Amino acid sequence: MEGDLSVTALYTSQVWSWGGLACAELFATTEAKRVYDVTNAALAAASMFKRGGSPLRYALLHRHTMIDHLLRASGVRRVVELAAGLSRRGAAVSADAGVDYTEIDLPRVIARKRELLERTTEGRAVLARPGLHLIDGDLETVALEPFVAAGEPVFVIAEGLLMYLAAEARRSLFAKVRALAERAGELRFVFDLVPQSEEPAPGAVGRALEAAMKRFTGGRTFERDARTREAVLGELRGAGFSDCEAIGAGSVARAWQLPHPDQQTNTVVFTSRAGSRSTRS
Ligand SMILES: C[S@@+](CC[C@H](N)C(=O)[O-])C[C@H]1O[C@@H](n2cnc3c(N)ncnc32)[C@H](O)[C@@H]1O
């Protein structure tokens, strides 16, 4: 994947701090705060000309806490998080010594994540956990099988990634994840993606977000060829997943006790299963 998407991990890491999520402070930096402030200022300026719609940070907080909820509810103890960036989830979840948690991202992001953890006693203790693995690799080429154990259910997360993948890359990721079910026996796959039909009509806010993205990523911005929830669900089924579901934040905000449940975000999280025991429990 060309372009620098790793800077987007700075913005999200600051959202996890702003949201008060456990372990987010381990990854807080002035650099992330600057990216966050500049982006929010651009979005707020653009929003002056528009009504309604929640600020981006609420949508991101909803997606992150929805995925936390799904992982917790699954009871699965082996996790592989793709494009983990500076997410605090691995640090928080691997506090349970019975969990095996693998995070994968590009080499410079993983190196930065290690550096940030090295800064504090608590961070160094997180790094020393036998159950936490920080792996550098490009998702297009890295083999995922080594992070899955034979006959052990696995929960695969891809947060904040799918919106940057065009159809072909999306389908090849789906196939790559699906193939892991052969070894694991049972696999859950969860990711977020707002279908194009649910995006607000291109306007000042959308243009401001694109401009901020381009500025920080050297020209890289969002792909918009996932048109509807049904289209994405169809791609998942076509790749061999079952029990595929698209969950809008608004439909679960209260039941799942998401933070800021009154914020109407357009977050959509997709869940699916694969493997020999892939029927709904
Ligand atoms: C928007 S950030 C999301 C980070 C994290 N999942 C979160 O939600 O806080 C996107 C992440 O995708 C990673 N990424 C992009 N392309 C990648 C690739 N080909 N292989 C591995 N990671 C990649 C970036 O480095 C970045 O950390």
Describe the structure.
The protein has 281 residues and is α/β, with parallel strands linked by helices. The protein has one domain: 3-Layer(aba) Sandwich (Rossmann fold), CATH 3.40.50.150. It has eleven helices and seven strands. The protein has helices spanning 6-18, 30-47, 56-74, 89-93, 107-118, 121-127, 167-179, 181-184, 204-217, 229-238, 249-252; strands at residues 78-82, 100-105, 132-136, 154-158, 186-192, 242-248, 268-275. A seven-stranded mixed beta sheet has the order 3-2-1-4-5-7-6, sandwiched between helices. Helix 1 (6-18) crosses helix 2 (30-47), helix 2 (30-47) packs antiparallel against helix 9 (204-217) and helix 5 (107-118) packs across helix 6 (121-127). It is globular and about 55 Å long. The N and C termini lie far apart (37 Å). The model has no long low-confidence stretch (mean pLDDT 91). The chain binds S-adenosylmethionine (SAM). S-adenosylmethionine binds at residues 1, 5-6, 8-9, 12, 83-85, 87, 105-106, 109, 138-140, 159-161. Residues 1, 5-6, 8-9, 12, 83-85, 87, 105-106, 109, 138-140, 159-161 line the site of S-adenosylmethionine.
